[in-house]
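Bumping my old thread because nobody answered last time. Still need a sequence for this structure:
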């Protein structure tokens, strides 16, 4: 198999057309995920952009079953579906949560943590676009420091705290598999989707989700911004197995964070004269997180990382 074959779409598992905004990452994400999981998969969708994108009843974008549920209950709903399918002997049917950062970092956090702690056999996919985009671009605990939303106080309307380290939190649950993925790096993304599909137990994939209206980016620049997020270490690509870390992509040359931020209108205020310290804070934070990842990776060899526990 050549280097591109495993991320080309061979058989579509989604119907043509989607209700997403131009440049939204949801449609591309589920297109690849659905191909990996097949038509028998059951998708649990809490309140989110994908609640709309998947289509109003009786429409369904995916060639699979979709269960819509409330913001806080995605993981609990998925747990019940998993138990029901198992009792029917359908243990090979994938149960997948498709949630945004609001329904994961915040409102659905308790249920997600509980499912992870119980090691429920579900795949949790969080499309992290850094705010409650579907309801008006309100701040979530995934919103980056310095980003403007409609609910931040102050003259600049920017968030003044750092986002929650969801991957660190989920790693502390000692689960079988978790990973970050980017739509700008399809081979890495598809590889991780295939790994997650094969693992039994709770596993989580966090996607850096492009959102042109919320990030205030031209739709044609969605993938470009996602690529720069990885190259600047604002969104590093790595995977976790039983609290062991492995970096899956290392930029040949790290790009300054401002190259990514300046393309996004939600950060335009930090480029005004007198706000240079904000860019430095973001750069320092990205550098420290990258250093931390490298230290965590260095604790285990590649063979130890792959070892089952």
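Sorry it took so long. Here it is:
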């Amino acid at each position: 198999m050549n280097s591109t074959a495993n991320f080309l779409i061979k058989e579509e598992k989604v119907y043509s057309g989607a209700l997403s905004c131009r440049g939204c990452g949801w449609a591309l994400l589920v297109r690849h995920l659905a191909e990996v999981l097949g038509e028998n998969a059951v998708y649990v969708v809490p309140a989110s952009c994908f609640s709309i994108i998947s289509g109003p009843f009786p429409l369904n974008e995916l060639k699979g079953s979709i269960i819509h549920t409330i913001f806080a209950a995605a993981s609990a709903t998925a747990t019940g579906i998993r138990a029901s399918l198992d009792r029917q002997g359908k243990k090979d049917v994938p149960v997948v949560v498709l949630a945004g950062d609001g329904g994961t970092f915040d409102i659905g956090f308790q249920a997600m943590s509980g499912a992870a702690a119980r090691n429920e056999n579900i795949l949790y996919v969080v499309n992290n676009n850094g705010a409650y985009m579907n309801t008006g671009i309100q701040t979530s605990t995934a919103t980056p420091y310095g980003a403007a939303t409609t609910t931040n106080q102050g003259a600049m309307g920017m968030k003044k705290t750092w986002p929650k380290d969801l991957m660190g939190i989920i790693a502390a649950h000692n689960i079988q598999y978790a990973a970050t993925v980017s739509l700008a790096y399809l081979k890495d993304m598809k590889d991780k989707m295939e790994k997650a599909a094969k693992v039994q137990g709770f596993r989580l994939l966090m996607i850096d989700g492009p959102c042109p209206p919320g990030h205030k980016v031209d739709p044609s620049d969605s993938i470009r911004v996602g690529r720069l997020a990885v190259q600047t270490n604002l969104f590093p690509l790595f995977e976790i197995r039983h609290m062991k870390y492995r970096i899956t992509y290392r930029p040949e040359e790290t790009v300054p964070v401002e190259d990514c931020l300046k393309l996004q209108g939600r950060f335009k205020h930090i480029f005004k004269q007198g706000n240079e310290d904000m860019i430095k804070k973001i750069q320092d934070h990205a550098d420290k997180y990258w250093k931390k990842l490298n230290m965590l990776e260095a604790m285990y060899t590649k063979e130890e990382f792959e070892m089952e526990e």
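The longest helix spans residues 276-297. Let me know if any region looks off to you.
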